[in-house]
């Protein structure tokens, strides 16, 4: 009888661990064609079109360290397995893939008929977005970790060879290059005809569209965060722990906020409430007033190198702790969270994006996850089976221990 009771308890525990796959209802959505949605990197989406997705996950052979891009209900992203993927947004099935010779750590940009991205094999690629055929590629002098930005007929991106590049979108010919004093891992933003970006040489640069420097601001340490821009103000974090609001006209400081640790997360801007949201290596996601840097709230979620996304009245952020958090944007209070590693097999999450009623986010475990916002759920993780196996082993061990102890008592 005791044995049967233990088995029932064990099965109950396993059932509690199992989460069903979720199906989203028809919702509004729009394309998300580049890192942080637009050229200003505001990370805010309010246009809509019909979309009916399902919760799913897709496994790659490496880590997914960047946000996907979305166009025409296809998702595009790269992995450290060196492969660039195109998936059907509705169910996560693979449409095509393209192999490079290096890790792919930056996001892509979709423009016209093509999708553009860089690889750590030093090449920048243009592929046909429908079938993955190569359109052109351009070789730089080192790895490319920066995410590109496309404006008019030009695509901009940084390279570890210390340069910012401007290439022709149609044929990949070099228009100009701008030399810094260290690797350019920051992703450029384009605002009012000016390209803004950071460099590992510690400077934030403003360059006009012919490649001439307008101004630079020296932060004193590497700048790997990417600029977010609104209404003449550039918001950017640095490895010296300071987060800056700079005037886009001349680079002068409007205000700064000290996080006391590296800020490689890029800011999410919510101009409707004059709020910005940014993560850091101090283990918190923080909300500041866009106007003067006043602290609104700060919540511990684990180190955050990814960039948050806005979903209605919530902020969605992927943490190095292996959890995706959905927090109230006014208070920072947790609405819900998703941890597919069940806290035993957690791996860092990259930047999430929002499409309709779904949250899409990649992870260092190599998986791309589709989560349902309204149902507060995601796909059943492969780690469930690992956890179930551990539970079974523990239950069997306990039963064996009790059986042996029972025999000894009878003796």
TrEMBL record:
Keywords: Membrane, Transmembrane, Transmembrane helix. GO terms for biological process: amino acid activation for nonribosomal peptide biosynthetic process. InterPro entries: Beta-ala_Activ/Resist, PQQ_b-propeller_rpt, PQQ_rpt_dom, Quinoprotein_ADH-like_sf, WD40/YVTN_repeat-like_dom_sf. Residues 56-139, 201-373 form the Pyrrolo-quinoline quinone repeat domain. This is PQQ-binding-like beta-propeller repeat protein. It comes from Methanobacterium veterum. It comes from the Archaea. Pfam families: PQQ_2. The chain crosses the membrane at residues 383-401.
